[in-house]
From TrEMBL:
<dbReference type="InterPro" id="IPR050570">
    <property type="entry name" value="Cell_wall_metabolism_enzyme"/>
</dbReference>
<feature type="region of interest" description="Disordered">
    <location>
        <begin position="253"/>
        <end position="296"/>
    </location>
</feature>
<feature type="compositionally biased region" description="Basic and acidic residues">
    <location>
        <begin position="33"/>
        <end position="92"/>
    </location>
</feature>
<feature type="compositionally biased region" description="Low complexity">
    <location>
        <begin position="280"/>
        <end position="291"/>
    </location>
</feature>
<feature type="domain" description="Peptidoglycan hydrolase PcsB coiled-coil">
    <location>
        <begin position="108"/>
        <end position="182"/>
    </location>
</feature>
<dbReference type="Pfam" id="PF01551">
    <property type="entry name" value="Peptidase_M23"/>
</dbReference>
<dbReference type="GO" id="GO:0004222">
    <property type="term" value="F:metalloendopeptidase activity"/>
</dbReference>
<dbReference type="Pfam" id="PF24568">
    <property type="entry name" value="CC_PcsB"/>
</dbReference>
<dbReference type="InterPro" id="IPR057309">
    <property type="entry name" value="PcsB_CC"/>
</dbReference>
<dbReference type="InterPro" id="IPR016047">
    <property type="entry name" value="M23ase_b-sheet_dom"/>
</dbReference>
<feature type="domain" description="M23ase beta-sheet core">
    <location>
        <begin position="312"/>
        <end position="416"/>
    </location>
</feature>
<keyword id="KW-0732">Signal</keyword>
<dbReference type="InterPro" id="IPR011055">
    <property type="entry name" value="Dup_hybrid_motif"/>
</dbReference>
<feature type="region of interest" description="Disordered">
    <location>
        <begin position="31"/>
        <end position="92"/>
    </location>
</feature>
<protein>
    <submittedName>
        <fullName>Peptidase M23</fullName>
    </submittedName>
</protein>
<feature type="compositionally biased region" description="Basic and acidic residues">
    <location>
        <begin position="253"/>
        <end position="269"/>
    </location>
</feature>
Length: 422
């Protein structure tokens, strides 16, 4: 992902940047804006740093908010767990109370049957007393005793009957009150439990709403955090590209000074020897074309510039089955970027200035890279070896020339066949 962001950032920056690095020209004016370009890059670096610091603060705030939300959600989760446990307990108590009520109903049924029987007994007693003259009947029973012992026996029997009637009435009243009390108590308990259950269900509903709201906010915070992460990553990659541009400009400054010193030395040597002879150029793998470029590798020209079955082809392919086939810099310049790309594989970008015109060449699918970003290279210098990395089918070099800087749309791409000998 980071590499992809790096590629996108580099693409955007190369496509919009006004930094054109002059690399080789006899015209002194070609170096006139070098300081301005250096200042532009440094200005962009400063702005980039400010943006990165701002994004870091945003990220810190979002992380703090995320931490707080996590704490709130954990608290709600604990409350939800506690509420669910209470709900489960209350439901159990309600079930038990309902079970007790059913049992009481059975008891009530039995008591009512007993009460009904007692009522019948009491009715019979009352009816008998009324029919036999009330309490006088009990006196007749006592007066009819044949002896004192019989009197005592009859008196005890009458007393027992009277006491039994009294106990029966008291038991009847007691059972009636017991039934009423139990019904009242159980109904009150059931109402209390149902009220508590309703309150717990309302609390659960409220907690569930809070949980959903917090989760919604958390989702947004994570989205914002990911977005800021991506923006920060892009800015960090842009900072890396700007750093490389700055290094490339410094390398060009050093080369310019070295070149000027060399030209001065040659001029002084020519003056002292009274000769215009110059040191011969280093041997190249092939002679430069009229445009100033050389063929970047040996091999078979396998695919040209323009439309083809796999889509628009913005360069040419040179295939070679040999082992360790060298790739040469098509012209002197500064390595603008040397890295791995998922599409280009191992790739090198070199910026050139030929007769006041800025070009950028691209060397893709290499098996190895022999140069680094910011390095000054000579025409014909080995920059890597031919390979089959990235989106490639078979060992070859994919070579592009851009009149101006490379950009994502490749709008500056020109046909290399018009610039190199094939």
């Amino acid at each position: 992902m980071k590499r992809r962001l790096m590629t996108l950032s580099l693409t955007a920056l190369l496509g919009t940047s006004a930094v054109l690095i002059p690399l080789k020209s006899n015209d002194a004016s070609a170096y006139g804006d070098l300081e301005k370009k250096k200042s532009d890059v440094q200005s962009k670096q400063s702005k980039n740093e400010t943006k990165r610091e701002k994004k870091k603060r945003e990220l810190s705030e979002l992380e703090s908010k995320e931490s707080s939300l996590k704490s709130d959600i954990e608290k709600i989760d604990r409350q939800m767990t506690d509420t669910n446990e209470k709900l489960e307990k209350k439901n159990g108590e309600i079930d038990q109370t309902k079970k007790s009520i059913e049992e009481l109903k059975a008891q009530i049924k039995e008591l009512k049957e007993k009460i009904e029987k007692r009522n019948e007994i009491l009715k019979d007693r009352a009816r008998t007393i009324q029919e036999n003259g009330g309490s006088n009947r009990y006196i007749d029973v006592l007066l009819g005793a044949k002896s004192f012992g019989d009197f005592i026996s009859r008196a005890g029997a009458v007393s027992t009957i009277v006491e039994a009637d009294k106990d029966l009435i008291e038991e009847q009243e007691k059972d009636l009150q017991l039934v009423e009390d139990k019904e009242t108590k159980l109904n009150e308990k059931l109402q209390s439990l149902e009220k508590a259950l309703k309150e717990l269900e309302e609390l659960k509903k409220a907690l569930d709403g809070q949980q959903k709201e917090k989760s919604k906010v958390m989702k947004q915070v994570k989205h914002d955090k990911d977005h800021v992460h991506a923006e920060l990553g892009a800015l960090e990659n842009e900072a890396e590209v700007l750093k490389r541009q700055d290094e490339a400009i410094k390398a060009e400054e050093a080369y310019r000074k070295k070149q000027e010193a060399e030209e001065k030395r040659k001029a002084e040597a020519a003056k002292s020897q009274n000769t215009g002879d110059r040191t011969a150029s280093a041997s190249k793998p092939s002679a430069p074309s009229s445009s100033g470029f050389i063929r970047p590798a040996s091999g078979r020209f396998s695919s040209g510039f323009g439309n083809r079955s796999l889509g628009n082809h913005f360069g040419v392919d040179i295939a070679n089955r040999g082992s360790g086939v060298p790739i040469y810099a098509a012209a002197a310049g500064t390595v603008y970027n040397a890295h791995y790309s998922s599409s280009y594989g191992n790739v090198v970008f070199i910026t050139h200035n030929i007769n006041g015109q800025t070009y950028q060449t691209v060397y893709a699918h290499m098996s190895s890279i022999k140069v680094r970003t910011g390095q000054r290279v000579d025409q014909g210098q080995v920059i890597g070896t031919m390979g089959n990395t990235g989106q490639s089918y078979g060992q070859h070099l994919h070579f592009e020339i851009h009149k101006g800087l490379w950009n994502n749309a490749k709008s500056n791409a020109v046909d290399p066949a018009n610039y190199i000998p094939l």
